[in-house]
Design a protein that fits this description.
Number of strands: 3
Strand content: 5-15%
Helix content: 40-55%
Strand order of the largest sheet: 1-2-3
CATH class: Alpha Beta
Number of helices: 5
Radius of gyration: 14 Å
Number of domains: 1
């Protein structure tokens, strides 16, 4: 699951925290216990990994993610460079055109290309 703050939907860091919350909702709904959340927002990753007690509204999301990762040890939250966050960026752009859609098993061609390219780097 990739998070990006370059689109109008998640254009601020605070909104990217809410994107993480939405992503956790989705993986819990689908019953997925092994997932990698990727984000280009370093403060988000640091806050979760260090279990910081943030006294802002998004602190609840930090705690929720920390608890999710604790309960699902095969899951991760990782930081990646913004220019390497292409899959999340393309998904966010596509979601703006097709709101309220889930793509659990099929992705638009413009996104599949980036997924295959990223998988080639593994």
């Amino acid at each position: 699951v990739g998070l990006v703050c370059l689109t109008s939907h998640y254009k601020s860091p605070k909104q990217q925290f809410h994107g993480l919350n939405d992503a956790i909702d989705m993986v819990e709904k689908l019953g997925i216990s092994s997932v990698i959340f990727e984000t280009d927002l370093q403060i988000l990753v640091n806050s979760v990994k260090k279990n910081r007690q943030v006294r802002k509204r998004w602190g609840l999301i930090v705690n929720r993610c920390f608890q999710f990762l604790l309960m699902n040890p095969s899951s991760q939250l990782v930081w990646i460079k913004r220019d390497k966050n292409r899959v999340a960026h393309q998904l966010a752009l596509w979601a703006e055109m097709e709101p309220n859609m889930d793509w659990p098993n099929f992705y638009p061609n413009c996104i599949s290309y980036h997924i295959q390219k990223d998988m080639g780097r593994l």
